[in-house]
Design brief:
The protein is built from twelve helices and 23 strands. The two termini are 22 Å apart. 5'-O-(N-(L-cysteinyl)-sulfamoyl)adenosine binds next to strand 8, strand 13 and strand 16.
């Protein structure tokens, strides 16, 4: 992609409502545009990052055998009345009437809808276990939408649902998802801590939030630093290993403020290992047994032919929130550096452009074509602007690698640098292999 062609409305002005770095940066680099309070359009740069996150989340879900599907955004109120949540959910639920006067709603979550799909199709224990997921827009009429995509009304979520015959099997599904989440966040270049959590309107008695550390987060967190030393590579997907992952991670103190006890924290964690900071909840998993299957009559024949309510859990990842969260975790001193797997581009070529001589631009185009051939996702900054402005702009856009074609270049060697570090002169071949690494 050539920068001159990219729809990226960069602005210098900062809207007064943007209080945190990620919101400011997403507006300044034209990643999103507010359409009304808590509702955003995703412009090409922001959309590209979100799609990369979505794809990693999808691959990790598929890896554990979860199956992708899609459910509608608009749901009928009937199933919510069956589960009893139609009244409980309160004003966060956007209620709509269709032209026949039927009560509908924009789904804030999908436990009821998936239970309805499941009960009409699966009758026997032989079809279990199952995990189904979808990646879809959700709507919650948040009382105070704020911080851009972090807490908005319309947001993009991966939502998975597990179905098992027994409590014991259901906990295995829960543990599988627990491990899968740790792997997913690591692939996204983020360090997430699982924390025992309240279940809120989703319900159940077993739940973990996955939180990444960031001072601008909404949750106050208290954790033991040593949790970051656990090596994920030592676990695999056998049942034994899966229950060990959860045991090992939860053996370290890690809670949000609603579960905090000063006494326990000081007893279990010595001073030097105490983390007291804020965090952003990027994922949340729940085990709630038959909370929905029982009132909604989602019954399964067990081996003896007895009908029992299927045991369910649900597992969310805030895909759109993660775009903001990744910025919060990686933006320092006015420089943004995307984690490589989710960067909008792998590398940007920055030729020093001179009106009387387009030699640098031609060299840049040649390198651009070569990198494209290798499937490198490359941006060429062909905008006629001085280099110092270009550098400032790319400090904000945050592409982790730059190829600079200017006064320091040699005939066949160009400056190559990783953001926030020193450049080196390399041939195109060497640049290609560095990028492959
Ligand atoms: N169905 C369950 C689990 S799948 C559920 O809805 N869980 S949740 O309410 O915790 O939401 C899952 C994730 O969506 C959260 O961890 C968070 O990352 C994201 N999320 C929730 N509300 C918002 C919001 N208002 N704006 C942006 N992201 C949100």
């Amino acid at each position: 992609m050539y920068l001159s062609k990219l729809f990226i409305p960069i602005t210098k002005d900062l809207p007064a409502e943007a209080k945190i770095k990620s919101h400011q940066l997403m507006l300044r680099t034209g990643m999103i545009k507010q359409s009304s309070a808590g509702i955003y359009s995703w412009l090409p740069l922001g959309f590209k990052v979100m799609k990369k996150i979505e794809q990693i989340v999808r691959e990790e879900q598929n890896f554990i055998g979860a199956q992708e599907m899609l459910m509608p955004t608009i749901q009928s109120s009937e199933i919510w009345k069956e589960s009893g949540r139609y009244d409980d959910y309160g004003e966060e639920m956007l209620r709509i009437k269709d032209r026949q006067g039927r009560e509908m709603l924009y789904g804030p979550t999908n436990e009821e809808l998936i239970t309805d799909v499941f009960r009409s199709s699966v009758k026997s224990y032989k079809s279990l276990p199952q995990i189904l997921y979808h990646i879809q827009w959700k709507f919650r009429d948040e009382i105070r939408p704020r911080f851009g995509v972090m807490r908005c009304k319309e947001f993009y979520m991966k939502d998975a649902y597990s179905f098992d015959l027994t409590d014991e099997d259901a906990k295995k599904s829960y543990n599988k998802m627990f491990f899968s989440y740790l792997k997913t966040f690591r692939r996204l270049g983020l360090k997430a801590i699982p924390m025992a959590a309240d279940t809120g309107p989703i319900g159940g008695d077993l739940s973990h939030e996955f939180v990444i550390l960031a001072e601008t987060g909404e949750s106050q967190i208290f954790a033991d630093k040593r949790i970051f030393e656990i090596d994920l590579n030592k676990y695999d997907f056998t049942d034994e290993s899966l229950s060990k992952v959860r045991k090992d991670f939860t053996s370290f103190y890690a809670v949000t403020d609603d579960k905090f006890s000063e006494k326990k924290f000081n007893e279990q964690v010595d001073n030097k290992n105490q983390i007291k900071t804020k965090g952003i909840e990027v994922g949340h998993i729940f085990y709630f047994g038959d909370k929905y299957s029982k009132p909604m009559n989602c019954l399964i024949d067990d081996k003896s032919g007895k009908k029992i309510s299927v045991k369910m859990g649900s597992y969310g990842i805030g895909v759109s929130r993660l775009v903001g969260a990744a910025i919060e975790a990686n933006y320092n001193d006015d420089v943004m550096k995307w984690p490589k797997p989710i960067s909008p581009f792998d590398v940007v070529i920055l030729p020093s452009i001179n009106k009387n001589n387009n030699e640098n631009l031609q060299k840049a185009e040649k390198i651009y074509k070569e990198l494209k051939k290798q499937n490198v996702d490359v941006l060429l900054d062909d905008v006629d602007e001085n280099m110092s402005n270009k550098f400032k702009k790319h400090d904000l856009i945050g592409i982790p690698y730059q190829i600079i074609i200017g006064s320091k270049s040699e005939e066949n060697k160009f400056e190559f640098k990783e953001l926030k570090s020193k450049s080196e002169l390399l041939s195109v071949e060497n640049i290609k292999s560095k990028l492959k690494e």
